Amino acid sequence: MITQTFAVGLAALLLVGCGGSSKKELPPAELEKITAEVELERVWKRNIGVGQGELYTNLQPALDGLTLYAADANGRVVSMDRDTGKVNWQVKLKEPLSGAVGAGGGRVMVGTLNGAMITLDENDGSELWRTQVSSEVLAPPQTNGDIVVVQSQDDKLVALDISTGEQRWIYESSLPVLTVRGHSTPVVTLHRVYAGLASGRVVALDARNGLPVWEQRIAQPQGRSELERMVDIDGQLLLDDDTLYAATYQGSLVAIDAESGGIRWQRPASSHGGPAVGFGSVYLSRADGGVQAYDQNRATPLWTNEQLLRRQLTAPVVFSSYVAVADFEGYLHLLAQTDGRLVGRVRVDSKGVRATPISRSGTLYVYGNSGDLAAYQLR
Length: 379
Description:
- The protein is an all-beta fold.
- 2% of the residues lie in helices and 45% in strands.
- The chain is built from 1 helix and 34 strands.
- Residues 74-304 form the Pyrrolo-quinoline quinone repeat domain.
């Protein structure tokens, strides 16, 4: 059986659609005027080449210590001072990139459409090694300082030696007939590798040998058509203390005991992005553009904001006392973490934002589709 993945146009449609319905789609919600309670000030801006390019990539910047890394679809990788945006180094690789950026253990890691995994030295961007995996890499490779873990489009997980690129182990799973183009980013700790699969399962593997520690199904395919039965986990998993959070498309939002794999709580949900945690709450951008908050311990719904429906939101991030999301028109929105009301807005990039913003030490880093990377702080 031949596995099919979504082309660019259909993947974009799914981001605004509502679970494969044949009904005519409603347009994105118009932005309502708001009374700004907080203001965002741009601290610096840096252009990173062509940004996301023409394909439906989702290249994510990465922070490692005081250094911010970003890449564009044409193969440019840039290292910057996170406080000033000053460039430390930049290199231009010969291959187009589709999975970026991973950083850690003195390495900067990117993946290509042709299935190459490339590792650079964090000090000067020089190439240390590259290796071929089984298919295109659509998520940033991750490391624990000993291994680099790559999740490829065919749902294989490969662990590579961080020094040599030699394969340590491989984990294979069966891929559904139809999947959304994209992949969840693995979480790699010293002893465990956690990954979300296109089948709606979350697995925990032993980081030393790739053997399964536990496997948990968090969504059950429903419906008659393959489109209706998709339950991909495409957003990043979130490990918070001993709890692993994950969300699926047309499935659920779950909190899992990271050690045993037992489900602590589960809520029906459909999302292309991963959850965020802060202030005792879990936040999620739904596939239809709603933003929801749940009590972190009891999963009780706290609030829902539906003013941004069908605006193709990024995953949420906790920023200061707020929750931040960006949309397909390039607007960055701040929501109050207490009740979800919109309290601030600024336009970052007229070509939109797909990459989830990064929040660190009072600064919000936002990478626009056109290639502009900007840092914002509250005024």
